[in-house]
Design brief:
Layout: H1 2-21, H2 24-40, H3 44-49, H4 55-66, H5 72-83, H6 90-104, E1 107-114, H7 120-134, E2 137-144, E3 151-156, E4 159-164, H8 165-178
Helix pairs in contact: 1-2, 1-6, 2-6, 4-5
Length: 182
């Protein structure tokens, strides 16, 4: 939980700067680019996270890698994260920033879990219905879970709508156990 609160503080600070500059999406893309490059480049993440590597050395490498790819504000934010030795939180910071940006843009992420592939038209129709009921633009992602047998589950934040056959069978089993035989 401490990790999330640290990441949230840094994300809030960076988001505040982005909001003032009216560059929320731009800075999100740049921070995402940094996180992806660090993850995809072999040993770079371990290098930045290593406690024996001097901060100045990490900052120099970061400047060489990212000064041509991101704005000075985003680079300064990365250098601050490195200076405060919070580089291991960078991915969490990005995730928190994404959530803030989505909230700012009135976007709600949701996941449609199905036993098999659902046609794009149906996914789009469901997203539109969810958008109408929540008043937010729904970003609906599809994932496949063969254990559902059939039907779907929709997960939006901490809410789950379970219309799966597995859930219905579970409820039927529970009702049968509770019923009295005369």
């Amino acid at each position: 939980m401490l990790n999330k609160s640290v990441a949230r503080r840094y994300a809030e600070a960076f988001f505040s700067i982005a909001h003032e500059a009216n560059k929320i999406d731009e800075y999100q893309a740049e921070l995402g680019k940094i996180v992806n490059i660090i993850q995809e480049t072999e040993s770079l993440g371990e290098y930045f996270a290593h406690p024996l590597v001097p901060t100045k050395e990490k900052q120099e490498i970061a400047k060489q890698l990212f000064s041509q790819q991101v704005s000075q504000i985003t680079l300064n934010f990365l250098l601050l994260v490195l200076d405060k030795r919070r580089e291991t939180y960078l991915q969490l910071i990005f995730k928190e920033y994404e959530e803030m940006a989505d909230e700012s843009n009135n976007i709600k992420k949701a996941e449609l879990i199905s036993a098999k592939a659902v046609p794009d038209a149906e996914v789009q129709s469901l997203a539109e219905k969810l958008s109408a009921s929540t008043g937010k633009t729904i970003d609906l992602k599809l994932s496949i879970d063969p254990t559902l047998l059939g039907g779907v589950k929709i997960r939006m934040g901490d809410k789950i709508i379970d219309a799966s056959i597995a859930k219905k069978l579970e409820m039927l089993k529970k009702n049968l156990k509770q019923s009295k035989i005369s």
